[in-house]
Design a protein that fits this description.
Elements lengths: L1 H16 L20 H12 L11 E2 L4 H4 L12 E8 L5 E2 L3 E3 L4 E3 L4 E2 L2 E2 L21 E6 L6 H5 L3 H14 L9 E3 L7 E3 L11 H13 L31 H10 L8 H4 L2 H13 L9 E2 L6 E2 L4 E2 L8 E2 L7 E2 L11 H5 L13 H5 L5 E2 L21 H6 L6 H9 L2 H12 L2
Antiparallel strand pairs: 1-7, 2-3, 2-6, 2-8, 4-5, 9-10, 11-14, 12-13, 15-16
Amino acid sequence: MKLSIGISLLAVTVLLLAPPFPEAPAGFDNKTNGMVDDATHAADQAKFDETEALDDGLGPLYNTQSCRECHQNPTSGGPSQVTELRVGHAGPHGEFVNPEIPIARGTEIIKGRSLVNDRAICPNAAFPGTEIQERVPDSEKIRTFRVSLNVLGDGFVEAVPDQTFVDLAKDQCKKNHKICGQVLYVPIVEAPGQTRVGRFGWKDQQASLLSFAADAYLNEMGITSRLQPDEVTNLCNTVAEPNDKTGPDGLSDIDHFARFIRATETPARDAQTAQTPKARLGAELFDKVGCDTCHVQTLTTAPAGTNLNGGTFTVPPALGGKQFHPYGDFLLHNVGTGDGIVQSMTEHYGKKMYQITWKNLSISEFNNTANKIRTAPLWGVRMHSRLMHDGASVTLHDAILRHRGEAEHVTKKFKKLKPAEKEALLEFLRSL
């Protein structure tokens, strides 16, 4: 009996003394997290920063000319004030319907996407009489802007097991009743038929960084790839598909983009502010009022060697078994700011997506996301000048007060704090 007790106590002692998971590296220094060497990371960043031109396949419809244009504060991969425009309208039963945008004087209709591109490559010298600029018809009453997101540290987010998000959602729904995050299984475009828990984009529309890169390359820059080979329109199009060709290293641009993001460090905190008594008090109040229910401080990645994304990506040692601090649960919630838009299948997963049978894909679950938005991870929030999904809040205080719906009771608790306590909580946020 004494031996049994002694062994049990020893086991508990070993467990208590066991070191936590190693910390993911953090910083804004353009250094790699260790997945590749610094020279390779710099070369991938050059691809990420590169300005696309007409002979690269830019357009015909597009928003920006480089990844960096949307993701660059304070360095490549960070967020920005750049927004995209999305619209649609309500159908006869209140369901979201994608817009129909006439171009070329009404001779072609752009369908199957909620995104409206701000730029077009013609009319130009080669096509002086072709007018393809998208403009929103009055019929599209559902309208929103969405700010560009941070992608620094997203390699660690990609490496979080699906079960972590499933468990987070179950725990929220069981304990809080009011707060109940939605898990959404989305297609992995590079692994036809396979799905995974979405975590990237304001609607959790992507789970793979390679799928994410191909989506943005087509829809934001108009450049087709092996994963997204179809142009939105062929008017003014003079570059053969796919525009994104494989280079001498066997990689195409989307491969470099994905590897760059996977190898980035996580956003670093303002260590000086974080150590102040005010910020430390604010951290306690952040948890006390319930902000941490959705803005989860710490997540842990899968072990190195784990196969993800339908077997197309293996977690490397640099990403495996690490803990990081995003202050977000990456789940979908209705906090009263939902834009009413349901993500388009063909826009995000390609025009042939309905020809494929996708495991665990539920159209009804997608339709349930109309008034939900992914929890905004708060790491690096001090670098944001425009907050919430639409950028309409420009102070942290205003952003907190906009929280309704599932977060209504949390907002009420914040309002009841003393002025000094509110300021302490805001100071904590300014340290992130």
